[in-house]
Amino acid sequence: MSATTVLLCGVGGQGTILAADLLARAALEAGYQVKVSEIHGMAQRGGAVTTVVRYGDDVATMVADTGDVDCIVSFETTEALRNIAFLKDGGYLLVADETIKPLPVACGRASMPSNARGKLEEWGAVLIPAHGIAEKAGNAKCENVAILGALEHRLGFGAELWGRVIEGRVPPKTVDANKKAFELGLEFADGR
Amino acid sequence: MMLMSGNEAIARGAWEAGASIGVAYPGTPSTETMESFARYDGVYAEWCTNEKVAVEVGVGASAAGARVLATMKHVGVNVAADPLFTSAYTGVNGGFVILAADDPGMYSSQNEQDSHYYGLAAHVPVLDPSDSQEAFEFTKAAYDISEGFDVPVIIRSTVRVSHTKTPVTTGEKVAYELKSYEKDPAKWVMMPAFAKPRRKVQLERDAKLRAWADECPFNSIEKRGTEVGVVCAGAVYQHVLEALPEATVLKLGVTWPLPQGKVQEVAAMVERLYVIEEGSEYLTNQVRALGVEVCDFPRELPRDGELSPGAIRYAFGIDAPAHENAPDDVPARPPALCAGCPHRLVFKELSRIKAIVTGDIGCYTLGALPPLASMDSCVDMGASVSMSHGFELALAGTDHKPVVAIIGDSTFAHSGLSSLITTVYNRGAGTVCILDNRTTAMTGRQGNPFNGVTLQNRESRELDLVGILEAIGVENVSLVNPHDAQAVRSALKTATTEQADELSVIVFKAPCVLLHRQRKPYFFVNADCRACGMCTGLGCPAISKDLESGYASIDPAQCIGCGQCSQYCAFGAIEQIPAASYEEVAR
User: Fold this and answer.
1) Class of CATH domain B220-315
2) How many Å apart are CA B524 and CA A85, to the nearest integer?
3) How many CB pairs under 8 A join A and B?
4) Does this model's pTM top 0.90?
């Protein structure tokens, strides 16, 4: 069993499920076996969400384990901290540079973690300004595809394959913006 | 080949087998199965009021000769247990397959239970797919098994099978003709005179099923090392492959009855045999009951929650690889009632009057969490109404806080109505709040009898909730707009003071914000804010409080303009932006 494990995490409503779906399609297109495990039910209500994508020549389990994940893709900084124990030594930590206060913090019953960015940087995180990149690509909603662009830096499926996957999945009107966001995301990660 | 979730694959398998009737009540992680089945050509699928009704409709359609799929979550099987047990006496005519979707780890459930026990207790075969391909194949085959042995078949899934997408190679739809129905009271009328012989039929069938389980290719031995052997099923099988690559594995696809010969065969092949299962001792006890020795793990395997390869490796003495630990100060991120949720002010007011609130199953269970924190109990579907009756009975004659039940529209239809009739009939007291948000929100906005939406968008009838309440004899019924704080407050006050010794029902009617997703101009906090904390106490995700100054602010991206918060501000500090400038921003 040797499969690559990508754990996508964020806050309900951030588009982690679409990103996971695109990633799974890309891995299938690349000729791998794929498993995508989603936990939903509470997703729309602002809770923490995770989706695990595993691909390889042979994939058995669909879950992520402590110290065993190749790439963590976090759509939010606090969620990256919450899930850090999953990352394997030398794994890729890709984090959208965006912070959403959980409700207990918003209503004054808890505090934000101290020095979150500092810790992420210390762990070697790639902090990506996904929102700015998506806006630059012409559509703020393409944030998740910008993040996938930066993930491609580590995965290496090839930009052409991703182009086909994006075309086949996103609404036709947003294909150009999504492709641009992907390209800019990849450029950002390559330049780091 | 395509990626399908386990739920989609079960729907596909049923459709290919010629199932033409689908019956269900939504419940995570089972819901998408019936939604997916409903999209196939030539099938009839419906949401029933509850799982018991669904299985009974299924038994009827099967008796009439159709192949039937019924789907539900594990706790739904409890509701359906009554017809399930006796349908294992009557048997079937057309094949009858029931999905029982378990939720180990309780991602979206009030308990974790192992549906295998239903197979054992009811004498119903149980199939355990470990991925979507098997979910598809087992379901398709289950119809022949059901008809061949004249018994319903349970497909037992878990959240990691139901909600994991894996590649599936589908097949061709088989031609299935409605079987003819012949009147046969000895088979279908389960009164003692007929049930006694059917009980004997059931026991004879058990023996045939045991023999079949040993031959069934869904149970297979994967021979590897001779030291360690593992018996496992479902998603756990996938974890075992990762964690113990050297182990010889008996992979069970049929988990009731167990294949005695194969269990003994695998036990003879290895030095030590283990049974690995999630949050249950079902398989372990079944294997031991066959006289086979099961070893204890070198270290502890969790007895609750989900397993993972790491948990299994740990039990076999292998620690997790090096990793960083999450900082201690990461705040929890629980789900919350949406911005603009019509349930919010009801909870706020119940919290204010310090009522004893018996809750129920649905989004509104989130009203139990701070800062609203206004729920005393949540047990099962419909329990809010019956438990409030129980509280009132026990506290009668004492000086007690008001007792208020909270239940949603779909849950009320599921089983709250029969509870309420009990209260009316026995002249019970207390207040029942029906939060009618026009949908079954928590599971993804399904139709129900009170919104008149059906699964396949067939013409329906929207039941008159207030009319039903009046018809069953509730004397104090009121209909209130839950976005109007004053109206909510005054309705609850009347019900819990003037009408304290009587039964009253308040219907709070306003659509779930996720139904139409309409936004109005957003609100903002002006310079009059006194940092009193009243608005942040509403638990709206759009409102936050500055940790140092205490001043509130509203996130315009999250605010939908419901205006609930502005009604709570005593200083006029929460204002709505003018419609004209909102339209400009929106452009």
Assistant:
1) alpha beta
2) 39
3) 181
4) yes
